[in-house]
Amino acid sequence: MLNTVYRLVAPRRFEVEFSDINLTGKELIVRPTHLSICHADQRYYQGLRPGEVMKQKLPMALIHEGIGTVLYDPTGKYSYGDSVVMIPNTPTEEDSVIAENYRRSSKFRASGSDGFMQEHVAMVPNRVVPLDESIDKVIAAFTELVSVSVHAISRFDRIAHERRRSVGIWGDGNLGYITAVLFRHMFPEIKLYIIGVDMEKLSQFSFADGRFSVTDIPGDLYFDHAFECVGGGASQSAIEQIIAHIEPEGTISLLGVSEYPIPINTRMVLEKGLRLFGSSRSGRTDFLKTMELYKAHPEIIGYLRNIVGAQVEVRDIPDMNRAFEMDIHKSIGKTIMIWDK
Length: 341
Prior knowledge:
341 residues, 7-stranded mixed β-sheet, 11 helices, Quinone Oxidoreductase, Chain A, domain 1, globular, single chain, Rossmann fold, 6-stranded parallel β-sheet
């Protein structure tokens, strides 16, 4: 089966390439319908990754957040036209200790292997999960990002000590918002505070118990635990503030991605006996948990609708460039490509 793949070959330049999909294997065929642009995609699109990384990764099809419809499933588990969420992480071996998203042997789409900017995607059946037709497909398009927050919160629940009176989340962007929405529903009894830089963005966190600018945090405000959802160079100041405002033996969950090393005040980490742990990507169990949360708390979908930005119908390469350029200039929100290929 001839397949059309849209690969980034250089910053801001997509080209069409063709590949062959073997229909005699055990992979199902999914036709992407809604794709969501992530910061990681933008770093490749704009050429913001180090030169040696760009040289190693490209050419490559972008996008690791998306949904589609099943066209063919040799296992018979899915029927033609079924809606599914695609899982970008692809483990290649079993490990009873290390989760699939942390195994060095696992492959991740749009980071070393082709992402979902294709006419058709061949996937192992356990790399998709069913999407209930009641769920807005535009929201479902960025389920992968939601599952990353679910993964981090689930790890918090396993790692953090039992004193959980209050939690602070640093970051008022998409990741901070999603993490806050999920945390509010998964732990409604814990007081939740948001710390950010943009008062307009902070106004979206109406469900939180408190919202503060990074320049106006009360000196006597302390949290039992915290999440860092900032990323980039600002991670340093965010982690510094967290360490200053966290109670002894608190847990700090790091989610923000930075291209360069971030200094951390280890003296205070030692003095307070803090635990820092990182969370990255997600696995099938996190996607299934996300689907359960969507069904158990349908209001989550309503909250997530607040961060839907542009919706761009994509039929050709100029449309792809237009979607990515619009995404660059947005202030907040997820740019969704309605993938009409």
